[in-house]
Specification:
The protein is of the alpha/beta class. The strands form nine sheets. An eight-stranded mixed sheet has the order 8-5-16-1-17-20-2-21, with helices on both faces. Strands 23-24-25-26 form a four-stranded antiparallel sheet, covered by helices on one side. Strands 4-6-7 form a three-stranded mixed sheet, with no helix packed on it.
């Protein structure tokens, strides 16, 4: 009897060990507003040159990831705004299938609602961890009211770290300032200097007598802050996003620096607690596989590289893209709206250089943090004899640096929507080292890739809601090959969708207004001009400058792309929801007049 028991115990340990080996630890890294040309290896794959067309960039750690794993170089995001893009990744669904089109809070109680990626990983036996920016604005409902809803078991977000002053820049809803209570809580931004002291960048706080007059302006000058001008107005020192400047703290002590060090502490304190400022968290459970997500903020505003990085990049002069009158005149109105709000032609040449220098310096600093995080993750996995996989997503979307006359994102132009993915795995058969996949891939592929690696049977009904493909199957040539990629975003532009092939990119206004459920088939019957079309012939016009949507030579191309796009985003199981202000809405509207239209196939006329 004793021998049988002993044998069973040994077999059980072997089984558990085997299960862990079959389920790799997964690290999912995401950056923010990250242009693909900030990475030398991506530039080499796309253009044949390592440097950006604008000038000098450096990215040794991401380049190393590309050498170690498989790069999906033609990956496109589903929406060119932070929240809808991040929702598409965490749900594995297109905006028109989830009903999340911009920055709306939403809830998980509707009939079409499905679990997020980390929740599904927990069902598969994983522990989950997140640090940094999440951007998935999910709530749940209780008695008709919204309640916070955590999708990661351990979640250490930016505001938590900022409240501990573990950052160089912070923003939070404050009830008191310097010990003085506020009548009404309000969101204020602040700098945290090397002494751990807060310097509020607000004249309003000074007017209330909570900070010495002139402090905000002095802080702006001390850190050489360059503000984004809204539209064509004049800049003010205390208004507008920070698009250039120097960090108040050294490398490693910024908000992104703390994301990496907190993640390292989580892994290095297996099976025991660790401290984050005055807070305490449990370290990783070494007996279970882990799904980790680091949401870096860089190079999103405020663009504040550490001083040593900034100094190095100040030595380089960059080519500044120019907007011609012809391009501006031919732009679609919705895209022109973005340019007008984020116009850069009224910046000085010096300021244009600064915004580019500081952006790429910030990218270089973040590259180092990514390398440190990945090295620690691989070391932890291998020391525990566990398989591992890293999914590196290069930005939730891109960022214009004077292209098309603007700074920011929100448009279907390539610079805003083209975001490569690198997957590195201990299983080189699934993701070979140094391989480059040029087939179209999309952000909705991230969830099925992680779930399949974790052992999910994607053909089962419970995963039928997923819109994407397992990238391991793409590598093996076992999945469908996309003729096109699609996306839809309502932020800033208003409702607009795009479809992109190897030769063309076409986008149009999809809805008459932002009222969900109202006249959902409007675009099917609207005048072509009222759809505000934009068509770019990429092979002849790689910079997407000449809008040929009204050129008779391209009439048949535009017609075919319009019909395909509208059938997919409006007619293939579309959902819209009146989410209400804090995400408490449950009134959903559906449209399914062209089911199956999204079949990855599009044959365009010659």
């Amino acid at each position: 009897m004793k021998t049988i028991k002993t044998t069973l115990i040994i077999l059980s340990f072997l089984f558990v060990g085997k299960a862990i080996a079959q389920q790799p630890n997964v690290l999912y890294i995401l950056t923010d507003d990250h242009r693909y040309d900030a990475v030398r290896s991506f530039n080499k794959m796309i253009t044949g040159n390592e440097m950006s067309e604008l000038g000098y960039v450096e990215s040794p750690e991401i380049d190393k990831l590309a050498e170690m794993g498989t790069t999906f170089i033609n990956t496109y995001c589903q929406a060119q705004g932070c929240a809808p893009s991040r929702a598409s990744m965490h749900y594995g669904r297109y905006p028109f299938r989830s009903g999340i089109y911009e920055f709306e809070y939403h809830n998980n109680t509707l009939e079409h609602s499905k679990p997020t990626l980390p929740e599904q990983m927990v069902k598969l036996g994983y522990q989950t961890f997140h640090v940094g920016k999440l951007g998935v604005r999910i709530k749940t409902l209780k008695d008709g009211k919204t309640k916070p809803y955590a999708i990661y078991q351990t979640d250490i977000d930016f505001r938590t770290l900022a409240r501990e002053n573990l950052t160089a820049w912070g923003s939070d809803w404050l009830k008191e300032v310097n010990g003085n209570k506020l009548k009404t809580p309000k969101n204020y931004s602040f700098i945290v200097n090397d002494n751990g002291e807060r310097e509020y960048i607000s004249t309003e706080i000074e007017d209330m007598g909570f900070q010495k007059k002139g402090t905000a302006e002095a802080t702006v000058k001390k850190y050489d802050l360059l503000r984004k001008i809204k539209g064509k107005k004049k800049a003010t020192f205390d208004m507008g996003m920070i698009i250039g400047g120097v960090s108040a703290r050294k490398a490693g002590k910024t908000r992104d620096g703390y994301y990496t060090s907190v993640f390292q502490d989580y892994l290095n304190n297996a099976d025991k607690p660790f401290s984050v400022g005055s807070l305490t968290y449990k370290g990783i459970n070494s007996s279970k596989p882990v799904f980790c997500h680091i949401g870096y903020d860089f190079p999103h505003t405020p663009v504040l590289p550490p001083a040593d990085y900034r100094e190095r990049f100040k030595q380089h002069k960059y080519k500044v893209p120019e907007l011609s009158d012809e391009e501006y005149t031919a732009m679609a109105k919705q895209m022109k709206k973005v340019v007008d709000r984020n116009f850069t032609n009224n910046y000085s040449d010096k300021d244009k250089q600064t915004m580019i220098q500081d952006y790429f310096a910030f990218c270089a600093y973040g590259d180092k943090l990514i390398g440190d995080a990945v090295d620690t993750f691989i070391k932890y996995s291998e020391s525990n004899k566990q398989e591992w996989m890293v999914i590196y997503v290069h930005g939730d979307h891109g960022w214009k640096l004077n292209e098309h006359g603007a700074i920011s994102k929100f448009t279907p132009w390539d610079i805003d929507s083209h975001n490569p993915i690198v997957v590195v795995s201990s299983d080189k058969n699934k993701f070979p080292a140094g391989k480059v996949v040029s087939d179209f891939t999309e952000f909705v592929d991230i969830a099925p890739t992680a779930l399949a690696a974790a052992g999910a049977k994607l053909k089962n009904e419970e995963f039928s809601y997923l819109d994407g493909l397992d990238l391991a199957k793409v590598v093996q040539g076992k999945g469908p090959v996309r003729d096109y990629v699609i996306g839809e975003s309502h932020a800033v532009t208003g409702p607009r969708a795009f479809i992109r092939t190897n030769e063309y990119v076409f986008s149009i206004q999809t809805r008459p207004n932002t009222k969900h459920g109202d006249n959902m088939k409007w675009a099917l019957n609207a005048n072509y001009k009222d759809l505000d079309p934009a068509l770019y012939h990429i092979t002849n016009d790689p910079q997407e400058i000449n809008n040929v949507a009204f050129d008779k030579k391209y009439k048949s191309i535009a017609k075919a792309m319009k019909e395909k796009l509208l059938n997919i985003v409006l007619g293939d199981n579309r959902v819209e929801v009146e989410w209400e202000k804090w995400g408490s809405g449950t009134k959903a509207f559906h449209s399914n007049f062209a089911p199956g239209s999204h079949d990855f196939k599009l044959k365009l006329p010659k």
